[in-house]
Design a protein that fits this description.
Layout lengths: L5 E11 L9 E12 L4 E5 L6 H8 L7 E6 L2 E5 L4 E2 L3 H6 E4 L13 H11 L6 H14 L16 H13 L5 E5 L7 H18 L2 E5 L3 H7 L2 E6 L2 E7 H6 L4 H8 L6 H6 L30 H5 L5 E4 L2 E3 L4 H4 L1
Parallel strand pairs: 3-9, 3-10, 7-8, 8-9
Antiparallel strand pairs: 1-2, 1-4, 4-5, 5-6, 10-11, 11-13, 12-13
Helix pairs in contact: 3-4, 3-5
């Protein structure tokens, strides 16, 4: 038994982008990402589009074959690329699941909801007979706020929020221990988002689930997460307890993200200072040398251009990768 349920060390994920031999180019989607998640915990992962959040979650589950790094689940090695060690994924598919971002694209339109949820039960042989299978499907649908009438309907007959519930039911069908929630609320109306987040929290409490919760919305992530990691251009730049990160960010990129959270109180909103970053995010095909954030950072100097900042624990439980933590704070 490991101290942590999930442990990721130096994860890398590159995608080929043309060229041959020495001129072969790669998109560096994830570069040297390390973190752990304890049992029953939710780790939030935030950052702007294209920063590698989703790729990190998918590489962990080997929906992409990782380029480098090591992943251990409950003390067992799922993959260690450097040692060419890759476990058979079928038993782990039962223990680790994913809820996809787009509830419209992730459900097969030709299958009924009962068959979508029941497919995993069939693959892993979790029901002894048809009646047990049916009872299990209905029980899971009821857990996510649907009922037995919904089992015979097709995905096009549901609203976006209901479809996402079907996606969550599919993930729960095998009673997993860990779920990658890949932006599960970004395609939903704001009124539905709160319902889905509350449902995730209830399910976690009742089933003892562990989440990697990927999202754009920092205020939603703060609400559901125990700790939050911030990614920029494929690298993790900061990781801390959720309220610690929001109240006292150390990295200049995190400060900018947090300054963009809308404040409901007009007086507070007027008093708060928005930190606007200049320039655009560089291409992951040709990232800057040294610190990935240096092209947009007001504190950048020659050291930032020459050297990748070390990922280190600045305070207890608060990690960051920046050469000028003291200057920024």
């Amino acid at each position: 038994m490991s101290e942590h349920l999930i442990e990721i060390e130096h994860l890398r994920q590159y995608f080929p982008a043309g060229g041959f031999g020495k001129n072969k180019k790669f998109i560096r989607a994830v570069e040297d990402v390390s973190f752990f998640i304890d049992k029953g915990e939710t780790l939030g992962l935030v950052g702007e589009s294209g920063c590698g959040k989703t790729t990190t979650g998918r590489a962990m589950l080997r929906l992409y074959e990782p380029t480098g790094g090591r992943f251990t689940f409950d003390g067992d090695v799922v993959f260690d690329v450097e040692k060419k060690q890759f476990a058979d994924m079928l038993p782990y598919r039962k223990r680790m699941q994913i809820v996809f971002q787009d509830p419209y694209a992730s459900l097969d339109p030709r299958m009924t909801v009962g068959d979508i949820v029941g497919e995993a039960i069939d693959v892993h042989k979790l029901a002894a007979n048809k009646q047990e299978r049916f009872d299990r499907i209905i029980s899971i649908l009821e857990r996510v706020g649907l009922n037995s009438e919904h089992a015979n309907r097709y995905p096009h007959e549901f609203s976006g929020g209901q479809r996402q519930r079907v996606g969550i039911a599919r993930a729960l069908a095998v009673h997993p221990e860990f779920i990658v929630c890949d932006e599960p609320i970004s395609a939903l109306d704001v009124s539905i988002q709160a319902q889905v987040i509350n449902m995730f929290e209830d399910l976690q409490e009742k089933m003892g689930l562990t989440y990697l919760f990927i999202a754009h919305d920092l205020s939603a992530v703060k609400h559901i997460s125990n700790r939050i990691g911030v990614m920029y251009l494929g690298r993790m730049v900061e990781l801390a307890d959720s309220y610690e990160l929001v109240d006292r960010p150390l990295h200049p990129y995190t400060k900018s993200l947090i300054s963009a959270i809308p404040i409901a109180d007009p007086k507070q909103a007027r008093a708060s200072k928005r930190i606007v970053l200049e320039g655009d995010v560089p291409s992951p095909l040709n990232p800057p040398s040294g610190c990935a954030f240096r092209t947009r950072c007001p504190y950048a100097d020659e050291q930032c251009a020459a050297q990748v900042p070390e990922w280190k624990e600045v305070e207890k439980g608060h990690f960051s990768a920046c050469h000028h933590i003291d200057k920024c704070n």
